[in-house]
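hi! just following up on the protien thing from before. the input was this:
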Amino acid sequence: MIRSRRSLTCAALVLIACLVPAAGCVNTLAGLAYIIKGTNVPAEYKDLKEKKVVVVCRTPASLTFGNANIARELTHEVSRLLEQRISKVEMVSASDVENWCDENSWDDPREIGKGLEAQMVVDIDLEHFSLYKGQTLYQGSADYTVQVIDIENGGDVVFKKTPPQLLWPPNSAVLTSEKREPEFRQQYLAVLAGEIGALFYPHDAYDAYARDADAL
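and the predicted 3d structure came back as:
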């Protein structure tokens, strides 16, 4: 193992020697960082592993017009990502969450966690969601807060984050004549779910660039 690591280091140094004249020091150091560490960004909250987790999405009444299913869709997509990317996590299915909410009145996401016997609640408070920039352009925008509630620890909030508004594409817009709304909606929902999910598992720093390219 030690010999293999030394061989990798030597190979990296040889590569640096080749790259310096052509690319300069800054690009070389960036290349070395990629070789040694990769591009993974660590999770901001890591303690969902080996827990039973339920995802809850809350939306204001103003979002029901035109986006009536956004809470259900986002719950499903974030749950799917967490199940795929976190080792040994047990996710409560989005359909179970929907059924419980249909059959019970609730005011606090802790009630859902307790009702579905979850240990942790990932609570998404979606304050704003839109697909449009004007009448003829698509540009998704969302304002939200994510918090993790530890049901087994008295319902304490153990993690909370309010990111900046998520615009996508961030520096442009898409003509409505070039793409159907359901297609753009699906793309933006995947971007939003990916941003939320990435708080809880390592992810590639260049994923966002790839998503931006998908919008064009």
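The mean pLDDT is 85.
The chain has two domains: 2-38, 52-214.
cheers
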